[in-house]
Automatic annotation (TrEMBL):
The keyword RNA-binding is assigned to this record: yes
Pfam family for this entry, one: Ribosomal_L10
Function noted in UniProt: Forms part of the ribosomal stalk, playing a central role in the interaction of the ribosome with GTP-bound translation factors.
Organism (species): Roseinatronobacter domitianus
HAMAP family the record matches: Ribosomal_uL10 (MF_00362)
Sequence intervals crossing the membrane: none
Subunit text: Part of the ribosomal stalk of the 50S ribosomal subunit. The N-terminus interacts with L11 and the large rRNA to form the base of the stalk. The C-terminus forms an elongated spine to which L12 dimers bind in a sequential fashion forming a multimeric L10(L12)X complex.
Protein name stated in the entry: Large ribosomal subunit protein uL10
Keywords attached to this entry: Ribonucleoprotein, Ribosomal protein, RNA-binding, rRNA-binding
Superkingdom classification of source: Bacteria
Amino acid sequence: MDRAQKEKVVEELGQIFESSGVVVVAHYAGLTVAEMQVLRARMSEAGGAVRVAKNKLAKIALEGKPCESISGLLTGMTVLAYSEDPVAAAKVVQDYTKENAKLVVLGGAMGSSALDPDGVKAVAAMPSREELIAQVVSCIGAPASNIAGAIGAPASNIAGILSTLEEREAA
């Protein structure tokens, strides 16, 4: 890899480190290409990505970034899993480690907060952005549907009473 390619990789990694909600660092020694492709596919479905980069270049890209604290984790065969959603990458990696023990989580970063392996597990246990939005919408929508039901109920009661009165008069 020549100098221009290295500079391009450092720039790309720098953008990843700045824009990602979470970055998870893991060792992937022993994973086959097929197993890595499964991880990449799952991460892509969740809205994230997986990147293998030279540790030296990643450390250079980390300088001055909010998640600079993970530079100490970049030793050996490391893979970076990242996503804009602060939960997606951690969830996918944690789920994959349950199936494949060859992927070992070292830690990560959520913004400027460093995460140890237990921290990554805790983040993975949190609901995703979509789940949180659905919960908020249901909380907002429930009172509105209750109000609509309460407003509609007296009208139907009145209609029922009127029809009963009409039936009595007709009889």
